[in-house]
Amino acid sequence: MLVEKNIVFYSNCEHHFVPIIGKAHVAYISAGKVIGLSKINRIVQHFAKRPQVQERLTMQISNAMKKALETEDVAVVIDATHLCVSSRGVKDVNSSTVTSHFTGEFANEERKNEFLKYLDL
Q1: Which of 4, 45, 72, 84 does the annotation list as catalytic?
Q2: Domains, in order of start, for the chain
Q3: Model pTM?
Q4: Following DSSP, what letter does each residue of 81-115 receive, concatenated?
């Protein structure tokens, strides 16, 4: 298992056009193919550049990783602060939103927990 964690990204909420600031944590188990570590960061940045909802961003990163690595064994967790929550409406500055997507081996609780123990959530 390879884990690349704390990938900082900046995006914009597609509903309110205010910033989303977060960290992505990505893991995969190689089926024989590997990519450079910076490519994982680039995949996150690529999808974060466009206005987003966090749920879709999580899925897009996962799908791109599966395609690039030719494996189903991918996990993505995103923890982000949405300025639409902290600067508008309820103005809650302490909350964050966590989304996840686990496929292949990561759907197995033991493997999923192995990945999650590395995260600082």
Answers
A1: 84
A2: 2-116 (3.30.1130.10)
A3: 0.94
A4: EEHHHHSSTT--SS--EEEEEE-GGGGSHHHHHHH
